[in-house]
Amino acid sequence: PQPADLRGLARTALLAQVAPAAACPTDDHPWHLDLPGTGLRYHAQPLHTPDGALRGWRDGLEPAALPLGEAEQLAFISHELRNPLTAMVGHCEALRASLPPLGPEIDEQLATIGRNAAYLLQMLSNLLNTARLQAGALQPTYNWIDPSSLLADALATVEPQLSARALPPVVTIDPDLPDFRGDAVHIRQILVNLLSNAAKYAPDGPLELCATLEGSIVRFALTDHGPGLTTEQQALVFQPFYRVAGSAARTPSTGLGLAISRWLAEMLGGSLNVESQYGLGASFILELPLLPTPVSRPSAPPLAAG
Q1: Per-residue pLDDT tens for 269-298?
Q2: CB atoms within 10 A of CB 207
Q3: Alpha helices (H) along 135-183
Q4: CATH number of 143-289
Q5: What pLDDT, in 10s, does the model give residues 74-103?
Q6: Where are the domains of the chain?
Q7: Euclidean distance between CA atoms 125 and 107, whole angstroms
Q8: C-alpha separations of 201 from 47, 195, 210 in Å
């Protein structure tokens, strides 16, 4: 069956079992159903209105949890392969920067080596993150985040991909958004994944990245003016290994970036969703709860007198 069919069948089977319990306003924990023979499992979390009424479900497909030994092996292999690949990418970039022009053919060969090594490195990073998520080895680490620095760092990471665009990204930061507490490493990873996707699938036209504060929610929105997504594609785009029809031949990708990004957002207590109208671009929206401020924020030590 196709992912959409599996999701529909799993929803029917699971909700028949848990709907009575989920109607209880105090029951907000997610439910899971393994799908034998597919390597996937279905998850559904009940959503309630402020007065406790069941208003719907947040659901989707995710890789079935590997036995701990298999998850550890996948993480180990990915990690060990990533180290030499990182060295290859670094040496290739150093060669291209230090050598004089060697002619169009050799220059293009070096560029091809660099592109493919970087792609393999990204694939291994995605596999390593997937294994860590499945093994429960990823835990948030909270610190103070400057929104301007966070967005600048994410943009710098994907600058080589974005440099070919006719128009540079437009960045807008809400003046009411202060420094906030969050997991800078994983928030940056989500933003980098979204920017990298935009560079791949919406290479032309404006690209807008906005950071705003909406009540107690920190909201990041990345809007492109590419081909957009159909309603069916929007329902599937966060599923592991999903590729938009026709994109596989044009754009190399593992199909894990958006799935990992949503898992990370949910690990941080937030959400990652897409809004799109086919033919008119798409907006990927990351929302994170504004964490309570500690009693005292660490401050810089005083300057020595004299």
Answers
A1: 899 999 998 888 899 999 999 887 654 444
A2: 23
A3: 147-157, 159-162
A4: 3.30.565.10
A5: 655 665 566 667 677 777 777 777 878 778
A6: 3-63, 68-134, 143-289
A7: 27
A8: 32, 10, 19
Please tell me the distance from the alpha carbon of residue 180 to that of residue 177, in angstroms, as a whole number.
Answer: 8
Give pLDDT tens digits for 140-184. Answer: 888 999 999 999 988 988 887 777 666 678 999 999 999 999 999
- Its pTM stands at 0.61
Assigned token pair, 150: 């966070």
Task: Write out the two tokens for 297.
Answer: 């924020």
- According to DSSP H, which parts of the chain are helical? 3-22, 68-98, 104-134, 147-157, 159-162, 184-201, 231-236, 247-250, 257-267
Cβ atoms of residues 219 and 286 within 8 Å: yes
CA distances from 28 to 60, 62, 72, 213 (A): 16, 19, 30, 25
* C-alpha separations of 175 from 89, 127, 287 in Å: 38, 37, 17
Residue 282 in tokens: 């798409």
Q: Which two tokens stand for residue 255?
A: 């199909």
